[in-house]
Amino acid sequence: MTDTAPPINAASAPTSGRSLGVRTKTYLYAALLIVAAVVLVPLITTALGGFKTLGDLRGNAFGLPQTWMVSNYTDILVSQRYWLQMGNSLLIAGLTVFLVLTLAAMAAFVFAHVRFFGSEHLLNYFLIGLMFPAATAILPLFIRIRDLGLLDTYWGVVLPQTAFGLGMSILLFRNYFRGMPSELFDAAFVDGAGYFRFFWHITLPLSRPIIATVGIISFVGSWNSYILPLIMLNSESKYPWPLGIMVYRGEFSTDWQLILAFITLTITPTIVVFFAAQKHIIAGLTAGAVK
Amino acid sequence: MSQIAPAPSLSVPASPTRTRARRSGARGKWPVIILFLPPALVLFTLFVILPMGEAAWYSFFNWNGYGLPTQWVGWKNYELIFRQGAFRNALVNNGLIIVASICIQIPLALWLATMVTKHIKGALVFRLIFFLPYVLADVAAGMIWRFVYDGEFGLVANIAKFFGQASPFWLADKDVAFYAVLAVIVWKYFGFHMMLFIAGLQAIDKSVLEAADIDGATGWQKFMKVTLPLLGSTVRLSVFFAVVGSLQLFDMIMPLTGGGPSNSTQTLVTFLYSFGVMRMQVGFGSAVGVVLFVICVSLAFSYKRIFMRND
Q1: Which of A51-55, A188-192, B228-232 has the lowest mean pLDDT?
Q2: What does pTM read for this prediction?
Q3: Which structural domains are found in chain B, ordered by start?
Q4: DSSP per-residue codes, chain B
Q5: Which of B37, B289, B292 sits opposite A107 (nearest CB)?
Q6: ipTM score for this prediction
Q7: Does the domain formed by A79-290 have CATH 3.30.499.10?
């Protein structure tokens, strides 16, 4: 569990000391199951729909496929475009995470430990970025990226994405760094370590939870992002999957069974990773909020 | 996912721990400042601050983005914005999304949070399921619901057929489409708000509730008189996120309706995209960006000042 979020997943968190009656319990489960169905039915029917024929879908959107059209899925899985899009998304997200972590940790270290003229104003300057979404400046951003010759490159997406992630990340890192016991700092200096050695040998190794949190926030944000790649990328070969899904739908406009298979395959990695690392992901994604 | 935070402490108070750095760090503090700060500073200035400033400048020109902006039009772009019916729709829609969040989503999230924090089997599984839509990309969620609402192959069509009714085409009906979109927003985001409330509930001191138990309070009384007042800061945070989320809603609208039919589902960002970016009206689009910026910043400041003062 990270230091930045309360133990959201702690299994035992009774709000009431009393045990519940059978009747209350029944109502409770009924309510929970209904909500769970509303959440899951669209997802399950999407995955099942990918196995159907179009005719089957028309009258039988809820049930199991009459014939399992596995080829809907396998055709996509052997196609280049699916893997290309996943690769593009992974590359863009990886670069973004690396840049955000590096730049934000370094800047936050200065804000946490070094005092200089104007340091507080400078931190507030970064926090301006928390107040508006990238969409507000999307046209000037497009022109800047174009004038830098970065249009239709991964960097055209990665750099603005990183820049807009810096405010939040610096804040999270700085708060974490400042929460470390100051004896560490004093001891290191007595031993003759400078700022750089302190950063590399003491701060970073102790910061794994916050690195994970910031990393998850940046990764999910980039993996799911749509508007920046939409505006900065032109060639389909560079499209991350959210753009790819839209193109795919444009091509197969009414072949819903294929579109559903494609959607299912594109969200599968997210769902698998979510269930595998749910504790960290939930903590990470709510950390920024709760702090 | 939201990239915006709840305007966290915008002015950072100096804390007494600062002195330790000053005492021991006297030697060699400049190398670390000079090496560690500029990369973030340059990137942030270049891609966040300058574009916002440029948006303000460009908004006074009629410009297609090529060459230099030369055709100064003064406030005309802003006048044009407020004369557009689509823009008024977008403003009203953004407002309605906030209202729906406050009236439907947040109570739902709070109600579910109180249930999944009880000592029941499977509570953890329910939490995971409810949080799942939040992790999915907005584009994917929008696409899935486009299928759900599809008048020929979708779930809604199948249900209508089952009851022998004609298939409704909700997303193509300008009087209904926006409510269909609202439902998707609630579906996508209630789990996030639920997690906020779970965190809030777990922070409540159990002994307070036990004291209420001893005083013979009913479950409802305990909730209204003890739990809810203690959740005040979480509710305010949750509302803040609903506002911020509404103001940047774009990804989900595009696969669902693209802002149509007849601009009935535009939001401020889809409006900016369809009328500024798509038509390469840099001046006009920048003006929309500035309006959005002013709304974001003034809401962030006033909300923080009025409601989150003590948090």
Answers
A1: A188-192
A2: 0.88
A3: 10-58 (no CATH), 77-306 (1.10.3720.10)
A4: ---------SS----TTHHHHHHHT-TTHHHHHHHHSHHHHHHHIIIIIHHHHHHHHHTTB---SSS----B-TTHHHHHHHH-HHHHHHHHHHHHHHHHIIIIIHHHHHHHHHHHTSS-TTHHHHHHHHHHHHHS-HHHHHHHHHHHH-TTTSHHHHHHHHTTPPPP-GGG-TTTHHHHHHHHHHHHHHHHHHHHHHHHHHTS-HHHHHHHHHTT--HHHHIIIIIHHHTHHHHHHHHHHHHHHHHT--TTHHHHTTT-STTTT--HHHHHIIIIITTT-HHHHHHHHHHHHHHHHHHHHHHHHHTSTT-
A5: B37
A6: 0.88
A7: no
